[in-house]
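Note to self: keep these together.
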Amino acid sequence: MKFLDHLEEWIVTFLMGGATLIIFVAVVHRYAAGLAIPGVQDWLLSLNLTWAQELTIIMFVWMCKFGAAYGVRTGIHVGVDVLINRMNDKTRSKFIIFGLCAGAAFTGIVATLAAGFVWENGAHYAWFNLLGRSLDGIPEGPTTPDLEWPTWMVYSAVPLGSSLMCFRFLQVMTGFVRTGELPHHDHGHVDGLEEEIAPVDINPYSMKDNLHPDETANQQGGTK
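Structure:
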């Protein structure tokens, strides 16, 4: 279970970093190849980076699917809860559990249907070929235009990401039943930035009477 605690962060971080690096290299290559530098320009033009855009699109699709699972786990998805929060605790808990069950059911259905689509789209052929089984009548499946990867590998983001979302819905529901609390994300908080209390410049010679102001009280926003 500990392996799954931060699975989404690891995947999203890897995909975001990789996509950023690929885009940076592709842009630099595009502009540098236009410079008339003897020897270097011919070498740059010989490099084929037309696949970079397609790969980054695939990476962003995977990033969105696993980012959605991260949103379920941390409670950052937008929800309209004005009416639910006005209910008494018992009724509110029932509606929350119903909503989480509905989310788990929906993502579970999507994962099941998507897994069937991926299987028929070429995964069937790939697994049978790997296991050395007969491939008679089994289509190999289409490939992507630039990378020429099997499209079932790209579409696998849907069943995998949806399955993880279903698991997170069930995990959040279990935690709510046990503790009565939902994951909450403070949108105003930025990781790494902590609120600092400004130091108070205390004058040791200030006199605490009605004739001399107390600097400590004034700087803390009050009077003594």
